[in-house]
Amino acid sequence: GQSLEQPSEVTAVEGAIVQINCTYQTSGFYGLSWYQQHDGGAPTFLSYNGLDGLEETGRFSSFLSRSDSYGYLLLQELQMKDSASYFCAVRSGGYNKLIFGAGTRLAVHP
Amino acid sequence: NAGVTQTPKFQVLKTGQSMTLQCAQDMNHEYMSWYRQDPGMGLRLIHYSVGAGITDQGEVPNGYNVSRSTTEDFPLRLLSAAPSQTSVYFCASSYSNSGANVLTFGAGSRLTVL
Question: For residue B97, what pLDDT is reported?
Answer without folding.
Answer: 66
